[in-house]
Input
Amino acid sequence: DAGVIQSPRHEVTEMGQEVTLRCKPISGHNSLFWYRQTMMRGLELLIYFNNNVPIDDSGMPEDRFSAKMPNASFSTLKIQPSEPRDSAVYFCASRLTGDYGYTFGSGTRLTVV
Amino acid sequence: QKEVEQNSGPLSVPEGAIASLNCTYSDRGSQSFFWYRQYSGKSPELIMSIYSNGDKEDGRFTAQLNKASQYVSLLIRDSQPSDSATYLCAVSRDDKIIFGKGTRLHILP
Output
C-alpha cells in the first residue's frame, strides 16, 4: 500500500498566482480530508468528501480556495489568487467511513512570497 | 472555547520515566478519540484510538478517556528519546476529526 500521496512536496509561488495541490487517497478509502497546518492555528480542517461528494466546506477560509474530487482516486485543492498568508503545510488524509483514524499524506509545504 | 485544548509544552521528561499528556474537549457529542504523534517536518501518525470510558493499553502507550469530564490523556511508559515529538489530541463526531494544537514532548537522555 503506497499510502496517501500528495504532490508537490514543496511549492514556492508569487502572490497572485494560482496554486494547485494534488492528493491520491489510499485505494478503498471513501473519505478524504484536506487540512492546513500553521504554528499559530494548528491543524485546521478545510473540507472533506465522502464518496467523492463534498460534505462540509465550512473550514475553507474564503472564495479563493476551492476543492474537487472528480473520482475516488484523485482530489485537488486550488488557491486562486494566492496570498502570503496562505503559506502553510497542507495535508490530505483519507480513511474508510466509520470510527477509524485518518492516514495522512506527507503534506505540501506552500510558500507564497 | 476551543474545541480541543492541550498544553503546548514543551513537556520535558527524563528517559525511562512516564510522560503524561492531557487534553480536554468541548463537544459532548464526540464519539471517538485519537492521539497522533508528529515528528518535526513530518505528517501526523495515529498511535492510539479510544472509544469508551476507561483505559486502553498498547505496548508502552495507555490512552485514558473520561467522557463525563470531557478529558482524554496519554501515558507513555519507559520514555525513550525517540518519543520526542509533538502529540496531537483529536476528537471525532460523525466524519470530522478536530485536532488540538499539540503538546511538544522532549525526552531528556
User: Anything to note?
Assistant: Chain B has a mean pLDDT of 94. Chain B is about 0% helix and 55% strand.
